[in-house]
Amino acid sequence: MSTEGRNKAAAFQQIRQFGDPVLKEESRPVEPGEDVRELVERMIRVMHAADGVGLAAPQIGVLRQVIVFLLDEKEHVLLNPRITWRSDDTVTDAEGCLSLMNHACEVERARSIRVEGEDLEGNTREFELEGLHARILQHEIDHLHGQMVIDRTSRDQRKDLLARMRKGNLPGED
User: Fold this and answer.
1) Does 122 reside within a domain?
2) Distance between CA atoms of 54 and 56, rounded to whole angstroms?
3) Are 170 and 10 in contact (CB under 8 A)?
4) What's the whole-model pTM score?
């Protein structure tokens, strides 16, 4: 196995997978001034090693309202993120999840959203996003509330996804 493959496999060993009870729990808010820099640095390392575009703290077993994500190839952090507006217009598209061994299923999401949260210094941050970026943040914020894409898909897709997961290896394994 290549070094990249080993790094990816190691990242997936840190990511909680479907069936882990922590992924069904509600995360606690982060208090202003609480030092979460080490957690954020770990999350960013794991996200990159797993070739992800976003990661929520519960996915690495920490029930805190912290997400990291890529936007225009730049890393962003949001503490206590919340969707303050979503469009009535929705889009159904394939959506993967690092906690589902990177398997994808069709999920309906709002096309556009507005998200508010805090950065590491406690400053309010707001993002107005559409398309893929809106989908990423809706996905990660769902994780903070114990929701996964498998909870948002049809019964038939859930059944198909579970069958594919039983047959598959972790990404990065030969």
Assistant:
1) yes
2) 7
3) no
4) 0.90
